Amino acid sequence: MFTLGGTVGNPAFRSVRAKIALALPCLVLVMLTAASCSPSDEQPAPSEAPLISAERVCGGTLNEPAASDLRTLTGTQRFRESTVPSATPVDLEDFLTTLRASDFGHDNFCRIYLPQEKLDFATTAFGWTEEAPADFTPEPGHMLFETGASAFTDGNTTSIYFPCRAEGASGSVISARLYDSSQGAGPLQISILNSVSRAVADGLGCLEESGLVEGRPERLTG
To answer: What are the Cα distances from residue 208, in Å, to 48, 96, 162?
Structure first.
């Protein structure tokens, strides 16, 4: 009859027991390695892009009134310039280099994101053109403002045209755009775009000729 007690002194039993003892550390190591690679223990995702103040948005091109208007327009105090954590901050000098060499059409300067949103709330863009639109007649919902050569908003798109003669440029007038999802609030939109436009004009050396006013542009009609 085979009993546990009869196996203790058995050399074969001692050999098996020794092999099991040697194998246990390896088994534990395998189990720990597998556990560390399980989906439930994956490393946390990289942090989101940093939140910044309105004064630092778009490379710090918003003056005090425009920064205040952005906060009023969005109802928030902090913003992002990207949804990519590793994205570099918006740099005005880098953009001016691109704009100087640009052909006709608009180049995006900066995007503004609300803290919890994946789609941008607003985008500013600049491009060269030959002349500003003349005798612009506003349609219902459009507003005209006194800044640059021509400035108006139709709700979701805000436009400013201002003269700017820069050496080697494709045109002599800059078309500035603000695309946003605020559904109106024209005076706030034009304030933001005018501030960024002044920074661009200053960087290109044409601020004096641009006709872009300081502070908030005055509403003319519409």
So the answer is: 40, 17, 11
